[in-house]
Amino acid sequence: AVVSSRVRAEVKRFLKEFSSDSQSKKADYSLGLRIITLTNDMAGFLHHNGTLDPSVNSGIYVFDTLPNSPAQKAGLLKGDVIIAINDVPIGSRTDMADVLQNCNGKAVVATFYRLTRGFLQTKIVPVLCS
Fold first, then answer.
1. What is Dmax (Cα atoms) for the chain?
2. How many CB atoms lie within 10 A of CB 56?
3. Residues 88-100: pLDDT tens digits?
């Protein structure tokens, strides 16, 4: 009986450590954007039409900002192309999700291109997804 209670206690301790370590899921954060990854074909089309700086070949194209979202409050607009967050290049939705997940809800600086203004930066505080 003494051995089994020790084993049980050890198993409980192990499971507690294991679940609070590698198995714990980080929170998901959002800027409140509707986006699509800027592909080479899309970039080429936008370059040809003169609506994207020729130096921009990857990033996240903003289709819309959600009402009252962090992105809208920070001034992001439809047509902006996010190229970096906290100086980390953003080439896909996954890149953006990874950076936001690691920010732990703290403000991030988004670098983006806007046709009428060129390259800009804005501070955005992500919100926790429900």
1. 78
2. 16
3. 999 999 999 999 9
Sign of torsion, CA 59 77 93 44? negative
Q: Please compute, for residue 119, the number of CA atoms within 13 A of its CA located in the half-sphere on the CB side.
A: 9
**Rg of the chain taking only CA atoms, in angstroms:** 21
The rounded Cα 114 to chain-centroid distance in angstroms is: 19
Reported residue count of the chain is 130
Burial of 72 (0-12, 13-18, 19+ CB in 10 A): middle
Q: What is the pTM of this model?
A: 0.78
> How many Cα atoms occupy the beta-carbon half-sphere of 120 within 13 Å?
15
pLDDT tens per residue, range 5-39: 666 666 665 555 544 444 445 678 999 999 999 99
State both tokens at 20.
């609070």
Of residues 94, 33, 39, the one with CA closest to residue 68: 33
